[in-house]
Structure to design on (793 residues):
C-alpha cells in the first residue's frame, strides 16, 4: 500500500467487506434463480413478470448500500450542517482532489459493475429491451452527486436533505423525461455525460471547504433559531425531565418541522401551475400530507443518537451517560421531543395546505371530494374519517420517529445497519410470496381464509414479546410495578379507541369485529417502544 | 478564596466512598482489568496512575456505572452504580477525558441544563467558577479551545459540590499555569472539606503534587495502592517518576 489510492481502496474494502460480500452473494443468488427457475422452467408459474417484480428491490437495495459506503455516510447525521467527510482523512497529506476523486472513482466503478452484473443476473420481462450502458452512467451520476452533496457543509441543519432530494429528483426527471420521449442509448449517454464531471468539481470544492472547517453561516436563519430556543434555555428548567426534553428538542426535534417548512412550500407552489387540473391538485395535496411521515424517516436516523456530531456513532456519550437520570428517562425525553416535533410539523401542514389552496384558487377539487364523502358516509362519519386520517398520519409521523429507537439507542452500529437490510430482505420475500400467491386463484383463496389466523398468530407473538420485554425491564429495575400497570392500561385504552373508531368507520358486513380488534392490537405500538429503555440500559452500562 | 462550603455528607464517614472487589473485565480476548480490589475511604485525593491502556479509564467507567461488572462488584456510596444510576451519579462530579460536551450548546445553556439535574447546584459558586476560568457565557462549546472545554466541563462537575469528584486525565489541554493553579487549588480544597477526589493521570509530577494516596495499575492489575508517603518511603524517598518506571516501566 504505497499510494493514497490503494490506501483508500483498502479502507473501503476492509471496512465494508461483509456488506460487499452480501452484495456479491445477492447477485449470485439472482443469477442462480434465473438459471434454475427461468431457464429450466422448473416452476413455470413463476413467470417473467412476477420475477421482474424482484429485480428493482435487490437492485435498489444494493444501489443504496453502495451509495452509503462510498459517501462515508453510513453512520453519519444527514441533517448535520457540517461535512460528512471523515475528519481523520482530511488531515492526510494529499490534495482535496485526491480525497474526493478516488472514492468517487471507486464508487462510479462499483455502480458500473453493479449494473452489468445485474443486467446479466436478473431476468427482465419478455420483449423488454434492456438498456446497455446508460443505467450505469445514471447510477454513477446519482452516486457522484450524492457524494458531493454529502461532503458539502451547509448553512443550516437539514438543508443537506432538502438540497439532495431536489437535485437527485432533478436528475431523475431529466432521465425519465428522455425515456418518455423514447430517447436512444446514445442520447441518454450524451444527456448524462456532464453529471459526473460536474459532481467531481463540486465534491473537490466540498472537501476543500470541509478541510478548512468552512461551514457557511446564514445570519438571519441562524440568529432566529438560537434566539427562539435560547429564550427557553435561559429560563430555569423545572425538572431534570424538562431539561432533557429541551436537550432532545434542540438535538433532533427541530429538524422535522424545519424540513417540512422547507419542502412543503416548494410542493404547494405547484398548485399555482396546475390549479386547472383537478387530479393534479388532489395529488399535490395528498403528497403534501405525506411529507411529514416521509421526512420523519430521514430524521429518525438521527433521533437515536446521543450526539449531533455528524461522524459520531450510535454509542451513548459519557456526557449523557453520566446524567443522574434513570435509563427510561432518556427514552421518554426522546418520545416527548418526537411528539413536539410531530405536532410542530403538522401545525405547519394544517396551516399551509388550506392557505395555499385558497391563495392559488384551487379549493374546488378538494371540496368536491369532501362533498362526495359527505354524501356517501354522512356528515358525522365523514368528519370522523377526516380526523382519523389526520390522526393516523400524525401518529405515523411520530411512530416513524420513535419506532427505531430500540435499535439506534442500543448503540450497536451493526444492528442499525442490519435492520435496514432485514427490512429490505423482508420486502423482497414479501414481494416474492405475494406474486406467488396472486398467480393462483386457489392459493389466493387459501391465503384470504388464512388471514385471520395469521393475524391471530402475529397478535400472540406481539403479546409474548411484550410480556418478555416487560419481564426483562422489571428484572433490571427499569420499570416499576406502577409504570408497568400504567403502560399496560394506556396501551389497552389506545387499542380500544382504535377499535371503536374502526367499527364506526368500517361496515360490519365487510369486516368482522374480531378482525378489527386484531388490527387495533397490531397497529398500536408496544414492543418496540417498551424495548427502547432496555436498549439504553445495554448501551449505557455495557 | 473559599471554593467549597461545608455540606452535610450523605454517607457516614466510616463507609468507603468506593469499594471495588475482585473486578475483572475482558474486551474480547484482552483482559482490561484483572481481579482489581480497591477501597477508597471518604476524604482525600486519590491518584490513579498507569501507562496508556493499563485500565485506568476502564476502572473509572465501572465506578460511574458506564460498564457493568462482569465479575466482582463495584459499590459507590454503598450502591451499585449500574442498578442505581441516579443515586450514585447525583453525588459524583465527572470530567471526561473525551471532552464530549454537546458542541451546539452555549456555556450558559450548558450550565442551566446541568443545573436541572443537581438539587445542590450553587448558582453563585458556578458563576464564580465561570468567571475564574474566564468563560464567556454566550460562547458556543464548539468554538472553545480544548483547554476552555475542559474548564467548562470542570465548572459543571464542581458547581453542585459533589461528594466524589472523578477526573479522567484532567490535565489534558490545560496549560501548565492553569494546571498548577486551578487543579491544585480545586483538588486540595475538596479534599480539605472531607470530599473525595479520584483522578487518573500520567503526569506523575502532578499526582505527586496533589495526591494523598496513589494507586498504580499495570496491565489491568493493581500493583501499588497506598498513601503516597508510604510508597515513597518504601522506595527510599524516590520520586513517583522513578517508582513508576521501576514498578510499571517494564510494561
Amino acid at each position: 500500500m504505497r499510494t493514497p489510492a490503494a490506501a483508500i481502496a483498502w479502507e473501503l474494502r476492509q471496512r465494508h467487506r461483509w456488506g460487499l460480500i452480501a452484495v456479491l452473494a445477492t447477485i449470485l443468488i439472482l443469477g442462480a434463480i434465473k438459471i434454475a427457475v427461468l431457464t429450466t422452467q422448473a416452476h413455470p408459474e413463476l413467470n417473467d413478470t412476477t420475477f421482474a417484480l424482484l429485480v428493482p428491490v435487490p437492485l435498489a437495495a444494493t444501489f443504496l448500500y453502495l451509495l452509503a459506503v462510498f459517501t462515508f455516510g453510513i453512520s453519519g447525521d444527514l441533517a448535520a450542517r457540517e461535512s460528512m467527510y471523515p475528519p481523520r482523512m482530511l488531515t492526510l497529506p494529499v490534495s482535496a482532489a485526491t480525497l474526493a476523486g478516488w472514492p468517487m472513482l471507486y464508487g462510479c466503478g462499483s455502480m458500473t459493475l453493479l449494473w452489468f452484473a445485474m443486467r446479466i443476473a436478473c431476468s427482465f420481462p419478455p420483449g423488454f429491451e434492456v438498456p446497455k450502458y446508460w443505467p450505469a452512467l445514471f447510477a454513477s451520476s446519482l452516486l457522484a452527486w450524492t457524494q458531493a452533496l454529502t461532503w458539502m457543509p451547509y448553512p443550516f441543519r437539514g438543508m443537506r436533505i432538502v438540497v439532495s432530494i431536489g437535485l437527485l429528483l432533478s436528475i431523475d426527471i431529466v432521465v425519465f423525461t428522455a425515456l418518455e420521449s423514447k430517447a436512444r442509448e446514445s442520447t441518454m449517454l450524451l444527456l448524462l455525460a456532464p453529471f459526473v464531471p460536474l459532481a467531481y468539481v463540486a465534491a473537490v470544492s466540498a472537501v476543500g471547504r470541509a478541510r478548512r472547517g468552512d461551514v457557511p453561516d446564514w445570519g438571519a436563519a441562524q440568529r432566529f433559531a438560537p434566539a427562539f430556543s435560547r429564550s427557553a434555555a435561559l429560563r430555569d428548567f423545572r425538572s431534570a425531565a424538562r431539561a432533557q426534553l429541551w436537550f432532545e428538542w434542540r438535538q433532533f426535534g427541530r429538524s422535522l418541522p424545519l424540513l417540512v417548512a422547507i419542502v412543503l412550500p416548494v410542493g404547494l407552489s405547484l398548485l399555482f401551475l396546475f390549479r386547472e387540473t383537478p387530479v393534479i391538485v388532489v395529488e399535490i395535496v395528498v403528497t403534501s400530507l405525506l411529507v411529514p411521515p416521509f421526512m420523519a424517516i430521514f430524521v429518525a436516523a438521527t433521533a437515536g443518537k446521543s450526539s449531533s456530531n455528524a461522524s459520531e456513532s450510535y454509542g451513548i456519550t459519557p456526557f449523557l451517560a453520566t446524567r443522574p437520570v434513570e435509563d427510561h428517562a432518556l427514552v421518554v425525553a426522546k418520545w416527548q421531543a418526537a411528539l413536539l416535533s410531530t405536532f410542530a410539523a403538522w401545525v405547519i401542514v394544517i396551516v399551509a395546505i388550506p392557505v395555499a389552496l385558497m391563495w392559488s384558487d384551487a379549493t374546488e377539487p378538494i371540496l368536491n371530494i369532501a362533498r362526495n364523502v359527505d354524501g356517501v358516509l354522512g356528515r358525522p362519519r365523514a368528519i370522523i374519517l377526516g380526523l382519523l386520517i389526520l390522526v393516523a398520519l400524525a401518529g405515523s409521523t411520530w411512530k416513524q420517529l420513535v419506532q427505531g429507537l430500540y435499535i439506534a439507542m442500543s448503540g450497536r452500529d451493526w444492528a442499525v445497519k442490519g435492520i435496514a437490510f432485514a427490512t429490505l430482505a423482508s420486502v423482497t420475500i414479501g414481494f416474492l410470496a405475494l406474486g406467488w400467491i396472486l398467480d393462483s386463484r386457489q392459493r389466493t383463496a387459501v391465503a384470504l381464509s388464512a388471514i385471520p389466523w395469521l393475524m391471530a398468530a402475529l397478535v400472540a407473538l406481539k403479546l409474548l414479546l411484550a410480556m418478555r420485554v416487560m419481564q426483562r425491564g422489571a428484572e433490571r429495575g427499569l420499570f416499576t410495578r406502577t409504570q408497568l400497570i400504567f403502560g399496560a392500561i394506556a396501551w389497552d385504552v389506545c387499542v380500544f379507541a382504535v377499535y371503536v373508531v374502526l367499527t364506526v368507520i368500517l361496515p360490519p358486513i365487510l369486516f368482522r369485529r374480531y378482525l378489527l380488534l386484531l388490527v387495533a392490537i397490531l397497529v398500536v405500538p408496544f414492543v418496540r417502544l417498551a424495548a427502547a429503555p432496555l436498549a439504553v440500559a445495554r448501551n449505557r452500562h455495557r | 478564596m473559599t471554593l467549597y462550603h461545608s455540606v452535610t455528607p450523605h454517607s457516614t464517614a466510616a463507609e468507603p466512598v468506593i469499594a471495588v472487589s475482585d473486578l475483572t473485565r475482558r474486551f474480547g480476548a484482552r483482559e482490561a482489568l484483572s481481579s482489581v480490589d480497591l477501597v477508597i475511604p471518604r476524604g482525600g485525593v486519590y491518584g490513579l496512575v498507569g501507562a496508556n491502556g493499563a485500565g485506568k479509564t476502564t476502572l473509572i467507567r465501572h465506578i460511574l456505572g458506564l460498564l457493568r461488572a462482569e465479575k466482582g462488584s463495584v459499590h459507590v456510596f454503598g450502591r451499585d452504580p449500574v442498578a442505581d444510576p441516579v443515586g450514585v451519579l447525583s453525588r459524583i462530579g465527572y470530567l471526561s477525558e473525551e471532552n464530549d460536551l454537546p458542541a451546539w450548546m452555549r456555556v450558559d445553556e450548558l450550565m442551566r441544563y446541568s443545573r436541572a439535574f443537581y438539587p445542590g447546584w450553587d448558582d453563585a459558586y458556578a458563576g464564580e467558577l465561570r468567571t475564574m476560568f474566564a468563560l464567556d457565557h454566550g460562547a458556543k462549546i464548539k468554538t472553545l479551545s480544548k483547554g476552555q472545554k475542559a474548564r467548562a466541563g470542570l465548572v459543571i462537575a464542581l458547581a453542585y459540590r459533589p461528594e466524589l469528584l472523578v477526573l479522567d486525565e484532567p490535565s489534558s489541554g490545560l496549560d501548565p499555569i492553569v494546571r498548577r493553579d486551578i487543579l491544585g487549588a480545586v483538588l486540595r480544597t475538596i479534599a480539605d472539606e472531607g470530599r473525595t477526589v479520584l483522578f487518573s493521570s500520567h503526569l506523575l509530577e502532578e499526582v505527586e503534587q496533589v495526591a494523598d494516596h496513589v494507586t498504580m495499575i499495570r496491565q489491568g492489575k493493581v500493583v501499588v495502592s497506598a498513601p503516597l508517603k508510604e510508597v515513597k518511603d518504601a522506595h527510599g524517598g524516590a520520586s513517583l517518576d522513578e517508582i513508576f518506571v521501576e514498578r510499571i516501566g517494564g510494561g
